[in-house]
Amino acid sequence: MAAPPRPELPPARHFVGGEWVEPHSGRTVGSLCPADEAVHAEVAAGDAEDVDRAVAAARTAFDDPAWRDMPPAKRARVLWKLAELVDRNRENLALCESLDTGKTRFDSERIEIPMVAEIFRYFAGWVTKMEGGVVPLPGENLGLTLRTPVGVCGLITPWNFPMLLAAWKVAPALACGNTVVLKPSEQTSLTSLWMAAYGAEAGLPPGVFNVVTGSGREVGTPLVKHPDVDKVSFTGSTEVGRMVMREAAGTLKRVTLELGGKSPNVVFEDADRKAALRGALTGIFYNKGEVCAAGSRLLVQRSIYDEFVEQLAAAAAKTTVGHPLAEGVRMGPVCNQAQYESVLRFVETAKEEGARLVFGGRSLRDEVGGGKGFYVEPTIFADVDPDSTLAQEEVFGPVLAVTPFEDEEDALRIAHHTRYGLAAGVWTRDLGRGLRFARRLRAGTVWVNAYNLYDPGLPFGGFGESGFGRDLGRHALDAYTEPKSVWVGLT
Ligand code: NAD
Predict the structure, then answer these.
(1) pLDDT tens digits for range 241-287
(2) Which atom number of ligand 1 is nearest to the Cα of residue 261?
(3) What is the DSSP letter of 34?
(4) Buried b vs exposed e over 305-318: b needs ≥16 C-beta within 10 Å?
(5) Ligand 1 pocket: which residues have CB below 6 Å?
(6) Model pTM above 0.85
(7) What's the CA gap between 192 and 212, in Å, rounded?
(8) Could you tell me if 159 and 190 are in contact, meaning their C-beta atoms sit under 8 angstroms apart?
(9) Which of the four pLDDT bands, split at 50, 70 and 90, describes residue 1?
C-alpha cells in the first residue's frame, strides 16, 4: 500500500471555554496507530488542574443566560449545524478515527461518522419537545412537573467507537440544556476534540462543551470526584465502571454506566441460515470484535451445529485482514498492544481449557503488517464449555465461542449463564419464538433476525454487570434531566 493519507489533526491542546488551551503539565503524549505502531498524533496530557479549569468553564456557562435562556428552537439549530459540520468533515474525521483505532476506513467513513451526525440531528429534534406535565391536586391547587437540566456533566468514553460514543452522550446532554466536560480515551482523542471545535463553530457559547484529554487516573478520576460535576456518564469496562461508581459516591453524583458484555447470539434450526451466518460473523468480527455488544457467544441448535460451524470457519477464512485504510479490507488491527496481547492470551487459555479451534488463533503481525501492527486472525472456537473462561470473560477481540444447545429452555439457560446483560440475538423463522425470547432474555437490547444494528431512537444499555441507565432514544433525556415539581396555589 502507498503511504496512507495524513489527516488534518486537532491541536495537541484541551478545548476549554471555547478555545484551545495548553495543558497545565505542558506535556503531550503520542497517539499510536495500531497498524504500524508509530505515533501519528500528539494529544495534551491533562491533569486535575485542567479538569478544574474545564469544570469551572462549564459551571459558568451553565449559569449564563446565553445558554440557559437560549430559545429551544435556536439550541436545536446549533445542534443541527454541528451535525452538518460533522458531515462536511466526514473524510478527515474518518481518517483520524481509523488511524487511531485500526477500524476500516469504510466503517469510519460510511457507517460511524454519518451516524454521529444523525445522532445530533435526532437529539436536536427533542430540544423543542421537552415537555413537562400537569398533575391533579386537591382543592384550588395546580401541580406542574418541569424537566430541568442536571447541570455540569462529566462524560467519559472508551477507545472502540470514539466519536460515536461521545455523540451518544454529548448530544442528549446538550439537547437537555446541560454543559459538558468530555474525557475521551487517551488513545483515541482526536475526533472528540474536533467535535468540540465544531460545536463552537456551530454557535455553542464558550464553556458549554469542553474536552480534556489524558489518562483515566489523571483526568478521569478528578472529573468523577469533582464536587462541581453533577452527573457522570461513563462507557468502558466493568472493572473501571466499579471504580467510577465508588469515586462518584463521595459527592452522590448521578451516574450512568455502560459497561462490558458477553452477549449470546442464538441460532435455531429453523433460522434463515444465510442471514444467521452473516449475523454471526458481523456479530463478532465487526470492528474486530471490539464492540461492547459483540455476539461473542454463539449458541447453535444441535441439529445444525456441525454444518453451521463448518460454514462459519469457511467464511472466517475469507475475511481480509489488513491496513485499515487499504481497499477491500474487512478487519483492521486490534486497537492497542495491551489488547493484542490479551486477545492472544485468551486464545491460549481457550485451547488449554479444551475448546476446539476451528479457525484462526494466530497473530498476523508478520504476515500482514511486516512485523508491525496489532493484527490478529478472525478466530472461532467450537464446543466451548459455558463455564470456561472464553464463555465467561469479555475478550473484546475477534474471537468467537460456539456452543451447542438442545432446545429453547436449554438455549435460555446457557444464554443467561453470565454476569453480563448487554445484548443478545435470536435467529428463527418462528416469530412467536423470536418474541418469546426477546421478552425473556435478560439483556438491554435483543435483536431478532438481526445483530449489531443501532438507531438513535432505540435506547441502549445493560442489565446486570453491563451497567445501568440508557443512552440513546427518549430514555437518554431522563438521564440528563431532573424532574422538578411545582405546586401552585390558585387562591
Ligand atoms: P476502560 O474502562 O479502560 O476506559 C474507559 C474510559 O475510562 C477511558 O477514557 C479511560 O481513560 C477512563 N478511565 C480509566 N480509569 C478511570 C478511572 N479510575 N476513573 C475515571 N475514568 C477512568 O475501557 P476501554 O478499554 O477504553 O474500553 C473497552 C471497554 O468498554 C470494554 O469493556 C467494552 O465492553 C466497554 N464498552 C461498553 C460499551 C457500552 O455501551 N456498554 C460501549 C463500548 C465499550
Answers:
(1) 999 999 999 999 999 999 999 999 999 999 999 999 999 999 999 99
(2) 34
(3) T
(4) beebbebbbebbee
(5) 156-160, 165, 183, 185-186, 215-216, 220-221, 224, 235-237, 240, 243-244, 247, 258-261, 292, 394, 396, 422, 462, 466-467
(6) yes
(7) 10
(8) no
(9) low
